[in-house]
Amino acid sequence: MDPTTQDELERKFQKELNAGTVGLLLLAVLAETEEPRYAYDIAKDLGERAPITKLGTLYPALRSLEGLGLLESRVEPSVAGPPRKYYRLTPDGRAALAAWARQWKQTSQAVNTILKGVDHV
Amino acid sequence: MSDATIDAYLDRLKAALKGCDKALIQDALWDAEDHLRSELARRRFQEPGLDQAKALADILAAFGEPDEVAAAYRDRDALVSAALAPARPSRASEEETVEAPTPRRGFFGIFLDLRAYTSLLYLLLSLATGIFFFTWAVTGISLSVGLAVLVIGIPFLIVFLGSVRLLALAEGRLVEGLLGVRMPRRQPPAESERGWKARLKGLFTDGRTWTSLTYLVLMLPLGIFYFTLVISLLSISLALLAAPVVHFVFHEVTFQGWVWGEDHTGVMVVIAGLLGVLAVPATLHLARLLGRAQGHLARRLLVRI
Which residues of A touch B20 (CB under 8 A)? Predict the structure, then answer.
C-alpha cells in the first residue's frame, strides 16, 4: 500500500481511539491528585506522561466533560498572567470514571487476548 | 518573533473555526493562546538559552494543526448538545443558544417553558443591575475625565476600564444563566507574555472595552423599561385573573359592571378572568421575546472577536 495512505490510516485510527480514551484520561488525571487543576497544567502533565493525543484537543474535551456535568470549574486569578480555570471532578464524574475504567479494562483485555494470536506480526 | 508565530497560528485556528458560535471561538482562541504562551514560558524558564523558533515549532506540533483542533471543538460541542438534548432536532438559526430549541408548544405551552420564567427574572433584575452598571460607568467616566489632569488620572482610567471588562464578564454569566444565550466563560487572554505595555494598549484599542462600556450605560434605560413593562403587565394580568375569585369566592366587590342601566357585574368579572387567563401567558411570551432580544444585544456588545 502507498505509505502516505498508510500514515493517514494510522493517524485516523489513533484519532478514533483517542476520541474515547481522552475523556477517561482526563477524569483519571483529576482523580489522581484530588486537587483542582487548571487546564494547561493538565495538558502539560498528559503531554509528558501519555503523549498519544494532540494537546489542543484536550481543551475541548475538558469543556465537553464540564458540559456533561462530569467536571466542574472555577476561574481563579493567578499570580502571574491571566486568570486560570481550575477543574475538578463532580460526584457524577467520579461515578463515570469508575464505570469507564472498568469498561476500559475489559476492552483492553479483550483486545490483548485477540492480539496474542498475532504476536508475530 | 514568537508573537508573530503564535498570532499566525491563532489566525489559522480562527479561520478553521469559522461558522462556529462566537463565544466558542473566543474560548478556543483563549485556550490555545494560553497553552502556547504558558508552554513557551515554561521551556524558556527551564532552558534559558533556548532556540525559540524551534521550541515553538515543537510546541505547535504537540498542540495539533488548527484544523484538527477546530474539529475537536466542533465534535465535542455537538456531543454535549446531543447529550443534553437527546430528542430535539437542532436548527442552524438557534445555534447560539445554550440549550436546544424548544419545540413549539402553542400559546399556553409557555407555562412549561423554564426559559420564560428565568427571562422574567432577568428582566425584573435588570433594573437593579442597570442602576449599578450605569452608576459605575458614569462615575468611572466622569472621574477619569476629571482626574485626567492629575497624575492619578491615568492609573484610575486603567483600573476603571479593567473593571468594565470584569463587569461585562459577570453580566455575560447572568445572560447565559437566565436567558440561555451563550456567552464567553472567561476573560479574553491578557497578553501576559507581551508585557504590560501591550496589555495596556490592548485595553484601549480593543473595541470590546468600549462596546462593553456602552452596554453598561444602556442597561439603565433598558432596565427601567423592562422592569416597568413587566411589573405593569404582571400586575394587570394577575388582577384580571383574580377578579372572578374575589367576586365569587370571597364575595368582595371588585368592580361594578353596569351596562345600559343593568347590572352585568357577574358577566364582566368572568370576562376579566378570561382576559387574565390570556394575559398571563402573553406576558410570559413577551418576557421570552424581550429576553432573546436582550441576549442578542449582549452578544453584539459584550462578545466581539
Answer: none
pLDDT at B82: 61
Please name which of B73, B30, B231, B220 lies closest in space to residue B136, comparing C-alpha atoms: B220
Q: Which amino acid would we find at residue B91?
A: R
CB atoms within 10 A of CB B182: 22
Which residue among A40, A43, A56 places its CB closest to the CB of B72? Answer: A56
Please check whether residue B279 is in contact with residue B183, taking contact to mean a CB–CB distance below 8 angstroms: no
Question: A43 CB near a chain B CB, below 8 Å?
Answer: yes
Residue type, B197: K
Contacts of B250 (CB under 8 A, 6+ apart): none
Report the alpha-carbon distance of residue B202 to residue B229 in Å, rounded.
39
Name the pTM for this structure.
0.55
Best mutation target among B42, B80, B182 (most A Cβ atoms within 10 Å) is B80
Chain B residue closest to A82 (CA)? Answer: B190
B77 and A75 within 8 Å at the Cβ level: the answer is: no
Cβ-Cβ pairs closer than 8 A, A with B, add up to 84
Proportion of chain A above pLDDT 90, given as a percent? 33
In angstroms, the CA B194 to CA B280 distance is 55
A77 to chain B, any CB pair closer than 8 A? The answer is no
The CA R_g of chain B, rounded to the nearest whole Å, is: 26
* Subunit contact A63:B80, Cβ cutoff 8 A: yes
pLDDT digits (tens, 9 = 90+) for B255-296: 666 666 677 777 888 888 899 999 999 999 999 999 999 998
A103 is written with which cell numbers? 469498561
Q: Which of A44, A56, A67 comes nearest B32 by C-beta?
A: A56
User: Furthest-apart CA pair in chain A: how many Å?
Assistant: 55
CA distance B260 to B262: 6
CA angle A36, A41, A46 (to 5 degrees): 105
Work out the angle between the directed axes of helices B153-179 and B114-147 (0-180°, nearest 10).
170
